[in-house]
Amino acid sequence: xxxxxxxxxxxxxxxxxxxxxxxxxxxxxxxxxxxxxxxxxxxxxxxxxxxxxxxxxxxxxxxxxxxxxxxxxxxxxxxxxxxxxxxxxxxxxxxxxxxxxxxxxxxxxxxxxxxxxxxxxxxxxxxxxxxxxxxxxxxxxxxxxxxxxxxxxxxxxxxxxxxxxxxxxxxxxxxxxxxxxxxxxxxxxxxxxxxxxxxxxxxxxxxxxxxxxxxxxxxxxxxxxxxxxxxxxxxxxxxxxxxxxxxxxxxxxxxxxxxxxxxxxxxxxxxxxxxxxxxxxxxxxxxxxxxxxxxxxxxxxxxxxxxxxxx
Length: 311
Known about the structure:
By secondary structure, this protein is of the alpha+beta class. It contains nine helices and 16 strands.
């Protein structure tokens, strides 16, 4: 049985629920927006597996019945039910916080499969830290400069000709080309160290790893950041592709090293056939790629969490 934690209307969460229904896999949905009325008791005893009781929808579920947990939670303090306003309830706010704390602690300790544990997702908070794991698995990475010094940026641009820049944290940012117009505002980096990378020509490929399964999607677009093609006046097309066995194995190894049974890996294939890796998303919005390419990524998630995929 699978426990799906999140907001059911959220695309990736919705697709997991639908995939479980199609596969006939028993599942329980913990709707995060109902956190004030959900009970969770976690029992920790020396020498015994962590257990407890989840109480929701008028029923108690022993935690031991769950073979896997899909964990896609927004910050509980940002839930509409927990925001300050005319209907704000301090008691409900506290109950919501206690539930999320207990849920996080249980998913860190349980022996069942979790996509993904919060501790593992922390690697995305620092792109330079994550890049070390990427390089250790054999992927190429672009020449990179992280600095708040405009002079060093200009030297880097002269050395590489075409440069893009992005955030070094887990906060989403739009990848942009360092153009002549942006060079006029380069002093802004003095307030915030920024990551600059040599532009790598080629084709973007997003890889989703779900346990041992690998789903690769080629993104066909001239846009620098394929997530926002319309901002550059471009369109995109997504096509399923088969990666070379060596690259598939490298993607699995990278996800394993980062303790991420579910991972969204951003690759780029150069005209010479070289594979560069830019980053690994620990909770990818895979629904965008599934709906664009027709690949059943959610099915891979359900198979792993239900125990049908190699651990």
